[in-house]
Amino acid sequence: MWQHLYKTRYYKDEDFAVLIGEYENHKFTVIPLATKENLKKAFEFIYDYFYRNNTKLNLRAITKEFAGFLKENYKDKFKYIEERDYFDYVYLGENLRTLKGRKYQKKRNHINAFLKEYENRYFYKRLGKEDFHECLKLLDEWTENKEEDESIESEREAIEKVFKNYDKLDVTVGGIYIDKKLEAFTFGEYLNDNMALIHVEKANPNIRGLYPMINKLFLQNEFPDVEFVNREEDLGVEGLRKAKLSYYPDRFVEKYTVLEV
Fold it and tell me: What is the pTM of this model?
């Protein structure tokens, strides 16, 4: 999804797969895809790759568990930096589908205001390839009055890439129409049988209650049984962090940057 930004490429054999990226002229990698038995073999490939390219090892978005694996097997070879901006937010699925309880009262107030204003004028729909042009049109409408921003352009390119490769992916896309016009869309996938992963959520910010509404309806319709929902990181963006915390995460998936000493 973000290949254009991080110049990512894959290396794989029968036992593992490794992703290598580059950002601001620095190579980096992430946790390799490998079974527990092949994890050390995969990491040795990574370490050798960086050595052959005359650069020190740089691992990003490393989980606490993988950091533990490195500490156990490589002792004091690396430095570990906690990256709060990249912690994943994990919620209880039932909480987001129902918004029950006092802590979600403000969310319910926003949804009730939406229902009062748009009752019988809105509907939820699972979106297909024939609808994706409407999503991109919305993105363009919402950003046309904003200052030029590289992150906005990169996000649009990432979304467009997902849409172009929709048939090859397991993502599900949903949207809300108001007066027959698409005003919100989101997409996600099953991370495993028990967890949904939400990649993108966009809604018209001028419509009160639309964000909690698309969040709620998407999960109710497309992921009605998952116990957990991962809504990814906040990237250190103050408004995004405030919004994610307002849904009261059950826990965080801690992330670390690991650098060779």
Answer: 0.91
